[in-house]
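Q: For a teaching session next week I want to show students how multiple molecules come together into a single three-dimensional assembly. I've collected the sequence lines for a complex. Could you give me the predicted C-alpha cells for the whole thing so I can convert them for display?
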Amino acid sequence: MPQHLIRKLQQFAPLSEEDGRALEDAASRKVRIFGAHQDVIREGDAPEHVNLILEGWACRYKQLEDGRRQIISFFLPGDLCDPHVFVLREMDHAIGTITSVRLAEIHRDQMLRLTDEHPRITQALWWETLVTAAIQREWTVNLGQRTGLERIGHLLCELFIRPRGVGLTEGDSCLLPVTQVELGDATGLSNVHVNRVLQELRSRELIVLRGKRLSIPDLEALQRVALFNVNYLHLEREGRRLEESHLIPG
Amino acid sequence: MPQHLIRKLQQFAPLSEEDGRALEDAASRKVRIFGAHQDVIREGDAPEHVNLILEGWACRYKQLEDGRRQIISFFLPGDLCDPHVFVLREMDHAIGTITSVRLAEIHRDQMLRLTDEHPRITQALWWETLVTAAIQREWTVNLGQRTGLERIGHLLCELFIRPRGVGLTEGDSCLLPVTQVELGDATGLSNVHVNRVLQELRSRELIVLRGKRLSIPDLEALQRVALFNVNYLHLEREGRRLEESHLIPG
DNA sequence: CGTTAAATTGAATGCAGTCAACTTAAGTGG
DNA sequence: CCACTTAAGTTGACTGCATTCAATTTAACG
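A: Of course. Below is the structure for the complete assembly, covering every listed component.
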C-alpha cells in the first residue's frame, strides 16, 4: 500500500525488504477515507496517531479568528504528517483534505516499534522530517520575499518536483487538484490576483494549466523566473554517505 | 554553561541531575565566540556539528540571487540549531549572528551518545524540534496573512515570550538587540515600513522601545492586536503526561 | 439540464515599497 | 574626551503591486 512513502524514503537510502514489509504492515492496520474539503484533525485536538497519505492531497492550515486562512503545507501521497506529533499535547494547526483522501492511521506504539526495530527507517524518517522543515523554511522565504509571480511559480515548481520523486508525474506534467482560492491561501495572495498571475505565466508559456492538469514545458525557465533552487528538497541520495558510515549496520 | 537550554527543556519535562551533567559536558567541549553579523555556517556548507547558543542572538537566513534576504528564524540563548542536521549533506540556509555570540559546538557522536543514554533528553529534544517546527509554521501564517502592524506585533510577542521561558526577561521588558532592517528581513517588510509600524505601536502604547530594550506594558493587548495565540509554543509542561506514561522509565 | 463551484474580468482603492534626504545614535581613534 | 566616521533610525513624496468589490463567464456535477 504505502508504495509512495517507500519510494520517497528510498530517495534517501535503500530500504531492505524487511523494512518495506514493516512499513506495509504499519500502514495497513487502519485505513480511512475522507471526502474532499474535510478536516482530518482540528486545531486543539489531541493527536492520537500519525497519518500517512496513501492517495489524494491534503494540507495543513491555520485560521485566524477573523477567518483569514493560511495553508501551511501540502501533503501528497507518501507524506507522513509528523512522525512524532504525539509528543505534543494538542494540535496547533488543522489538517484538512483538498481532494478525497485515503490515509493510513499509524498508532504511536506502531511508530515506536518501527523506529526501534528498523534503524534505517529511523534515519529515513529523520531525513523526511528535516526535508519537511526545509520546505517550511522555503515557504517562509516565498511569502516574505518573492513577488506574486515568483511565489506562484515557485510553488508550482515544488508541486511538480515533489510528486515526481514518488512517480506521480508523466513527462512534463502532473496533477494539480487545487483551486485558485487554495493557491491563494498557500501563497498569501487573493484569488483574483492568483488568477492574474496564472494568466501571466500562461502567456509567457511557462506553464500550461487546464482543469486539474499542470504542464511545465520548460522547467528550468520556470525555475529561473521563480528563483527556485531545488537544494532545499535534499534529493541527492544523502544515503550514500550513510551506507559508508558506522551509524547503520549494513 | 547551558543553563538556558536546560531551563528550556525543563519546560517540557524535569531532567535528572545526571541528564543535566551530560548536557553540561556536551556543551563545554568546544566553545566558540563570534562577533556580530558574522556567518556561523553558510548555505552549501556541510554541517559538521550541532550549534548550541549559549549567549547572544543569531538567526537562520536565506538570500536570493538578487540580494533579497529573509530571516527564517531567530536563535536565542538556549536554542539548538537542528539536533540532527548532519543527516543532510549540505545546508540549505545560512546561520549568522545578530549580536556577538558565544556558542557550543556539539559533535555528532556527542549528540548520539546524549540521546542513546538519556531517553528523557531524547524526548525533550523531540519537543524542542517540534516546537521549532511549530514556530516556523506560525511565521508562515504571519507572512502570509497578517498586516504589517500585526506581523511586527506578533513577532514582538514571540520575542518576549520565548526568552521569558529561559529567564531572560525582567518584568514586562526584555532585550531586543535587533535593528529595524533585521525586523524587516524577518517580517518581509521594508525598513521604512517597519519604522512606521513601530511608531504606530508606540503611539498606541502597546510597546516601549528605546535602544535595544523592549517593554510591553500590556501583553494581552498586544496579543489581541497581533492575533497572537500562544498555543504554538507548547509551553504547558507537556511532560506531565510523559511522567505518567510508560515511554520513559521514571 | 439546472445548480453550484470555480474561474475570469474591470474598476477603484489602499497598503506597503522605493527613493532620497535628513537626524540621531553609536562607535572609533587621536 | 572630543572629533570624526559610520550605522541606525526617521520623514516626506511618489509609485505600484496587490486587494476589494462586483459582475460575468465557464466548468463541474448530480
